Amino acid sequence: MTIDLGEIMRPARWILLDFDGPVCSAFAGYPAPEVAGTLREQAHATGVVVPDAVMRENDPMRVLSGLYQVAPQWHADFEAALTQAEIASVAAASPTPGVTPMLGVCRERGLPVAIVSNNSPEAIRAFVAAHHLDVLVDAVIGRDKVSPELMKPNPYLLRQALAELGGTPDESVMVGDSTTDIEAARAAGTMAVGYANRPGKAERWRELKPDAIIGHMGELAAALRA
């Protein structure tokens, strides 16, 4: 059963946001299935035998993880290719409706914000700088060439963010639009808010039992103001 959003946001002192979804559509300019295909093509070109499960995967992060399992020696190359694709893609992205006012309210209230994402920090920083959101974001924690096992749902990145902000899990809220965000929040000990940005997602997410579910990032700004 979800909790009233206001009850979650009132005691929150640190805000953690996923990038792809809550902040922007990270693959707006370079669709995720195409990026996944590009990574597979690079793997084939290096002689890597790509598993069937990876051949069917459209999520670039899962393709990166799958390739790491079979060819860790090429990980740096695949990582670099994905980073360049993300940087190119976010150049065509726009801020998610409601996120800019939400960041503004956090700044007004003195609530530090970190973007915590499996996307590359280079792409995240390029986006927030291009849209003048860098002055509203206190920390950017991306995959930064870590082993794929440390990406969400592993809580490693959330713990890195809290360490950089000087935050504590019990007074922090993680906002994300994927199951890995909710699972990482649970493992890190933070509150979890699910951003249901597609039809039917809220209903599917109730099985994961996030602390709250929102359909628009503006709901967070309203809860913070209240």
UniProtKB/TrEMBL annotation:
Any GO MF annotation of the entry: hydrolase activity
The protein's name in its UniProt record: HAD family hydrolase
Q: Which InterPro entries match?
A: HAD-like_hydrolase_sf, HAD-like_sf, HAD-SF_hydro_IA, HAD-SF_hydro_IIIA, HAD_sf
A Pfam family assignment: Hydrolase
Alphabetized UniProt keyword annotations: Hydrolase
User: Which superkingdom?
Assistant: Bacteria
- Gene3D superfamilies xref list: HAD superfamily/HAD-like
- State which Enzyme Commission number(s) the record gives: 3.-.-.-
